[in-house]
Amino acid sequence: MSYLRPTSWAEALAARAEYPEAVVVAGGTDVMVEINFGRLHPSALLDLSRVGELRALGREDGHVRVGSGVTYQSIMRDLPGELPGLAAAARTVGSPPIRNRGTIGGNLGSASPAGDCHPPLLACGAEVEIASVHTSRTTPVADFFVGPKRSVLGPDELIAAVWVPAATGPQTFSKVGSRNAMVIAICSFALALHPDVGRVGTGIGSAGPVPLRARAAEQFLEGHLGETGAWESRPRLGDAVVDEFARLVAGAAQPIDDVRGSADYRRHALGVVARRSLMWCWDEFRGGRP
Amino acid sequence: MSGLRADGEETAKMTLDESGAKRRGELMTEIDLSVNGRRHSVECEAHTTLLTVLRRLGCFSVRFGSATGETGAAAVLVDGRLVAADVLLAAQAVGHEITTVEALNVATGEYHPIQEAFVEAGAMQSGYSAGAMVLATKALLEANPDPTEAEIRDALSGILDRETAYVKVVEAVKRAAAALRGEKCRPMDPVVVDALAGYKASPAATVTEVDGEVSMAVPRLVISPDVPQTAVVGKPETKVDALRLVKGNPAFTDDIEPRGMLFAKVLRSPHAHARIVAIDDSAAAALPGVHAVLHCRNTARVKYASGGQSWPNPPPWDQVSFDDKVRHVGDRVAAVAAESTEIAEEACRLIKVTYEELPAVFDEVEAIKPGAPVIHDETDTEGIFDSGRNISHHIEGQTVSDEALEAAFAGADRVFEETFHVQQVQHTPIEPHITIGWLDEDERLVLRTSTQVPFHVRRMVAPLLGLPVKRIRVIKPRLGGGFGAKQEMVIEDIVGHLVLATRHPVRLELTRAEEFISTRVRHAMTVTFRSGVDAEGRLVAQDMSVVSNTGAYGTHGFTVNSVSGQHGLSLYNCPAKRFRCDVAYTNRPVAGAFRGYGAPQAFFALESHMDDIARALGLDPYEIRERNWVRTGDPLDIVLRLGERGGVEDLAPEDIPVITSCGLEECALQGRRAIGWERRSDPAWHRPADRPHIRRGLGMALAIQGSGIPLVDMAACSIKINDDGSFNMLVGATDLGTGSDTVLAQIAAEVLGVPIEDILVYSSDTDFTPFDVGAYASSTTYISGGAVKKAAEAARARIVVRAARLLGVDDASTIELHDRRAWALDGRSVSMGDIALNALHTEDQEQIMGTASHVSPESPPPFAAQLAEVEVDIETGQVTVTKLVTAVDCGVPINPITASGQVEGAMLQALGYALCEEVVLDEAGRPLNDRFGPYWIFRADDTPPMEVYLVQTMEPSGPYGAKAVAEIPIDDVAPAVRNAILDATGVAINAIPFTPERVWRALQPAT
Lengths: 290, 1007
Hints:
The complex is a heterodimer of chains A (290) and B (1007). Chain A has 290 residues and is of the alpha+beta class. Chain A has 12 helices and 13 strands. Chain A has a domain at 171-285: CO dehydrogenase flavoprotein, C-terminal domain (Enolase-like, domain 1, 2-Layer Sandwich), CATH 3.30.390. In chain A, 37% of the residues lie in helices and 22% in strands. In chain A, the strands form 4 sheets. In chain A, strands 4-5-10-6-7 form a 5-stranded antiparallel beta sheet. A 3-stranded parallel beta sheet of chain A has the order 1-3-2, covered by helices on one side. With 1007 residues, chain B is α+β, with helices and mostly antiparallel strands. In chain B, 26% of the residues lie in helices and 21% in strands. Chain B contains 24 helices and 35 strands.
């Protein structure tokens, strides 16, 4: 087994090109489980933990550029104001030993349907910056996942960063699980309101083969808020609107029966969480208006 | 890739030859690590974890709990931040500063302030993860000298503790923070609480003001006036093994590594039920580095039962080391010893096994129906009750004839019948099963093993290996928890076989997945209670019938299920009682001993049933219990009809044991007060106005347990004096983290008039320590404590004789021992050291020592009341337990800190049983949640507030009034939560765990 330890981004891309079969290790919290269990027998490990560029945070055009090597811990500590949904999701990840090592790039690279970062990234409309020695491209997070633990990442490509629009309105992230704080959720849901552009963003985790957006729910709510001028007048939302939004979110899920819960229950729970998320976000947006 | 450099090092060194890289385990390289301020050059492979390297370097405080980072036992600091060394490549740590708890161990015999706080607060039980917790505390306090409780809990949340419920760990962190800020903390002396029932506080006792500000980690004590004053017993002494644990010193099985040691792996069945038609081990045996491959074709077929119990182990003896049939996924097929774990794993993959798959059955009720696949169709197992119907045991016991029972039901005003179901759960000690075996210089087999039953293991493993008992020595080092999973011979025979086959030392450590599937689980049960009551709610007839799931083998099937009846039918007085049980073989993982031992299943059913009866009769749940519960002097009339010495047909009334101490009423009253029971009648409290989807409720449940197995459990102890007046105490008792070494030392110190630090405890080693049945059945304090007291009294008898002579006193019986001296009535005294020197060196020399053994004809029951406050989210079904209270009568708690620690730990295990734990299999019997995460156990950051009340009673048969404590607090959390959900929502749910989905479904209106 080769162990490749680049110290710069250029070296990392070169190594990736030369060893396309290498397994990429960032914090190691996911990959090492697979290696310890003997489920992965890579011929090479490509360790990105020494590439300093990947740990950088940048700001440009109302976006935060989160380097793929940024840890959950750093997201929680450094970004709660700009990216509240992502920071809330990072806070629910594992525990301090995992948050201190696990990275946003590693979470995306594993492409687990249960990845905690994915719903808020979807809700925010984030884009993934992908690079190889030859090219660089960005892809919306919604198009990044192609199946359970599979993404659009090519064999010679690495995730450089994630571009996340800074919040212009309330954002939430919620999990439903067996306990108050659980490791893997029965389902999770992120909601982001973008009042500046009249948009609504959603993200669903653990309820389908890939993390999902509830597009019909987004369109419904955007339509309602736009048509009624609610972004400006900020009225209370009627029960019918909230219930319809929840129904559409639940309908967008593609859950399966597994050890954590049946498909029926997951869809139901997702509807409940969607309704509550909308009420929390809208209340926050209304800012204590009567 | 030579162009890639890391920290000035040539990375080409790390880029290894790929020609042979398909298999792991052959390519080594060298890395430089900085550990605790020293640089080390270490050979490792690319995929080697930091955990492996640190242990190789002698950092024993960094321990294996899983290979997933989920237990935190391997947490270390990298550049001051807590990370999980089991999911970190060693090579990734190059260039960073690694800190383990060894860095704090600068002075011999001294503590860092954080360690001191852990010792003082009683934060460690087994201490297996103590190093990680101390480091988590260090990292937290360096960043935040005055953290909130929530911040402390978050900092600890990555380190799972199956023992303490984190109560005293959080307290330790608070104390450490205070100490580092230069503040002083209140000592951990118990807070004395006013009695509510018949007790009056003893005037002689030191009564502390009840202070709401004192942390609930400090035990609350209700004092009985019958308890005499003592010097060491009853005091919050720190653990005698605290130093080795908090410093992470090498104390556990895996903390030694004999030269030439081989690594074992077990090939396990992928099928739930299959016959092994053929095994071809040629490729495995030919693999370089493989020393032995053992299976049913080359190992003797010797029948045994794996449950660690007194001779003769209850039948059926339905196991062999390697069978030609597999009966559950994870069952043993073969074992390999090789020069590395990787080679052993590879060899397991190379063993070709041809199976004939058989139909399987998993549910206990289905298994005993006609036509179910027969799991034990072999002809050489004796003592199966009905192998054709998969019934391993049939158990019956009743206090009256069937006719009298039916007559009692016929005379009842109301008859209620309900059926309950409880699931399989796993013990999950953070230290998995591990055994290291070798042949000593006399070619005797030595097994250093993580067991609760070293003496049983020695006797039980002998015939399997074809060795006489005298050729075997079993050493029990520190244990990282057991909870009954290690009251079984789960792996010791495999290691013994491999040592004899290879003549090399052999180490076998189970993975977390193997712990779940191949060790033991709690019996799943289907329990039906039929109860007849009179118009006032008094029980007139109780009929309890059980179908129990023993899994693939019978091991503890007889005793666990007997205990279900013994305790389930002993809590309440009733003139007519009957217990019937069929124990079913299934193709599930093997059920065995698990803390509570059949009682939690019985009490989930009984205490749920009692609430439903109360509801039907319009009674308060407390009221119906008060009308029926047992009191001092009441008979334990079913106990002798069941169990090892059971089946007694004609019991004379004078042979029926009676309750000699009972604090049940006080427990129930304390619990009721602590939980705020009066809120049950407040509708506004049940429906908080600001959260319309929430319903609140309160629930109660009571329990009775035993203190050891009467006339079966035996313990022994030997005590000798040293030149300086200290004592060595050898006990066969097995401290698995419970604190029994400490409690036993307190009893000896009390008798001998010395402080606890003068008692040097050694437990347990079959070559050196006297016999003890082991740590189970809540027997250690009561039975082993009885042996210690007798042995200490024997030594004391010689001490006072010699002291009388030295002091010129005629009557030795007037000599008193205290403060390390022997005192005459006139106030003259001689020191224990001078007595020892005199006895050992100067005059009429002798070794002052005492040896004694103890068996009890009784098993005085401890009692408990457990109460829960819950919030039910009626939209999602999520149940949040917002408070748990336990009040327990364990007689006189010898050490209130360790006793309350036992209670807290059991409460949290029981909360998992109630809410989230379940071993789930797919339709083929394969595990779906054989790792933490999918199998949830509670973490520091999701544990509800807990309150523990110790209600003293003076048990006349116990050492200094003690009864048992370790098991009873696991009995009643599930029914208390269930009854609280009933109070909150009006919905009775008769199966656990209360997952959100189960509760949500129960809340849906029937269609």
